[in-house]
Every structure is written in structure tokens, then in C-alpha cells.
Amino acid sequence: MGELDFSNSSTGSAELIGYCDDILVNVLVRLPGKSLLRFRNVSKQWFSLISSPYFSRCLSQSSIFPSAIFLRMRNKLKYHLLPLDTNPVQGPTIRSFNFVDDSAGIRLLQSCNGLLLCCSNNRIGEYNRNYYIYNPTTNQYTTLPKPGNRTPSPNTIFGVILAFDPSKSVHYKVVFVRSSETTSHLYQLEIYSSETHLWSFSSNIPKVKNFGQGVYCGGAIHWIMNNSRCLLCFNVHLERFQEIPLPNILDDWDREPKCRYFGECGGRLHLILTSCKHSTRQFDVYEMKNDYSGWLTKYQVDLNALTSTYPEMTRSHSHPSDWDYHAFRVLAIVVREESKQGPSPSSFIVLHIPGKAITYSFKDKTSTLLHDFAPGCSDIEGCTTFEWDDAYPYVATLAIV
């Protein structure tokens, strides 16, 4: 059989790609998740390829950075969905989750590498509350089974964390922090595995101020501990704990530093701490070292120039030395691939300032409007609505829940 000659064929390249899975995968992983769902109907070959665990792993390796964020509206079961591109969002951005008929409504608890951990919003009858794992790309969900070894009361849930790393496994775990049945001064971990569909008890754990703000990164869940200036890390696979000191922040009043942001991007753990006394126009973004030996200063941020562009950031009733003299909240940190020459132009911080969401480039020191929450409203000086734990990154994934 002679070789195929694609040199003079306008469709030759397309046919070559269609018959070569490696080339096809390299092209498809660059497309939005919604497009991939449609392209599964092109042919049996494409359906099989896009639905395969191999393609899901390839997609997770190319889509490790968020393309949008969900912003929780306080006292409502509604969320803004803001794409993280350079064009301001036009039109409505508000949505609620209705993937399942839950009479109490659906509340978003956590985002982890493309999957969302959600629960019923009912506040009474905690044992009867439903928990869901939802994939917003495929619109598929699953309801977690009730733990068979938990008594209905008086066990209280203090935090629920989803642990999912598609680069390592197609399976996930859900870690519940609950009151201990044996001692009142400790909590207990109860873990659900999507691989075995079983619950199991793990270690006791010291009480932490806010177990609901845990961050999963690098195979471990991280919590900021009370009054100790340490991170408490729980290796989900080994079920072991480790404490890591926080960066040392000078404070003339010897107070605990204020956490302005704690999150993950692209497999990297990031933290922003500021003094409780001094103004926060200038601050450092810390990143955990690969070997967990400590923190490095990833970026040094100076927001002074923003105050002239957005004068509504200034709180006229505050003193310039106050830590909250300029009104802003950090919603997300997006760190792209970088080189020895410094930050990538596409690495940025997402800020909420009065009435708006903006991005601020680490490299160019420029800002871009993402969305105006209050167009035409002038009475917004110093007013912020969202905190860092109201933001949930969205990453496209075809993971099966």
C-alpha cells in the first residue's frame, strides 16, 4: 500500500489529526470543557477518546489554572460566575445551583481541581443534610452516602474538605471534621473514599478556629491553627499530621498577623499575611516550598497606584496608617508558568474593591476590570462585599463523580 499524500490536500491535516490520537489529544485539551462535551458526538473514536481516563488526565495537566471564579453572595444561595479573561463581564453573572432537586437549596462549600463540594442549606437536622460532589463542566453529580458508623447526635460537623488530584488518581476523598465520641477536647476525622464507597475513621485532631477554611494542595489538607502561628497539614494518603510555621510578620503590638488570603493555584500553596497595625497597601505573597521546609516570598505587591485609578478604595473616615485604610479584598491568586526572567505576564491577583472585581498583574503592575457590581453607583466608598473565602476557583475537568 502506498503512503498517503497530504501535501496537496486541503483536508489532509485534519484527516491526519483525526487518525492520530496523540495529535488529537494535544488539540482537544486546549478547548473549553463545554466544547469537548459537544465534540464527543463527532464520532465513536472521539467519544471514546474524550471519555477515557487517559484524556481526563491529559486535560487536568493542561487545565491546572482557574478560568473563572464563583463568588458567593452573602446571605443568599446565589453566586457570581466571573471568567478570568481580559474582557469585563457583560450582562448577568448571578446563578444558583440547581443540579439536584433539594428543597433546602444548595450551598457551595469548596472547589477542588474542577469538582465542587456542595451541601443542603438546611441548618436543622445536621445528620440528615445531604452532601454532593458536582462537576459543573459535565453537569454530573453524586450524593455522598450517609456514614453508617456515625450516631445521629450529638456529633457535630465542624468542617468538610474535598481532596481531589486528577494528576494522581481519578478518585477523590471527602474528609469530615467532627466532634469526637471519646474526648471533648479533640475532634475526629471521618473519611469517605470514592474508590471504595466506604467511610472510615482516622486520627483525632486538635481544635482549630475554622476547619471550614481548609485548603487542599499537594496531597494534603492545610488549616491555619489558633494562636500558634502554624499550619496544620494532614496528608490524606498517609493520614499523618505535620505542623509548619507561618512566615514571621513583624507587629509592634505582638498580635497575630491578619490572614488576607490562603489558597492554592496550579499545585502551589499561597498565603498573604499582614500586620494588624500597619496599612496593607504593600504586602508579600508567600508560596510554600516544594519540600515543605518553609515559605518563600513569591511576589511583593504595592497597590498605591491603584488608589488614583480607583479612588473609592480610600476610606476617608480612617487614618492613613490603619490597616484597612484602603478597602480591598484578595479573592484569588493565579500563577502561570514562569521563567528565570520573572513573573509571567498572565500571573495576577484578583482583587475585590468597592463595587468591582479587578485583576492586578504581578509583572506589569497594571489592573484590568473584571466586573462592575454596581454600575453608576457613587455611594460605595470603602464598601466591600466579598472575602477571600467567598471565592471558589473554576477549573475545567471531565472527571467522573
UniProtKB/TrEMBL annotation:
Classification via SUPFAM superfamilies: F-box domain, Kelch motif
Domain of life: Eukaryota
CDD domains, per the entry: F-box_AtFBW1-like
The F-box domain, residue ranges: 19-59
NCBIfam families: F_box_assoc_1
Protein name per UniProt: F-box domain-containing protein
Protein's organism: Hibiscus sabdariffa (roselle)
Taxonomy of the source species: Eukaryota, Viridiplantae, Streptophyta, Embryophyta, Tracheophyta
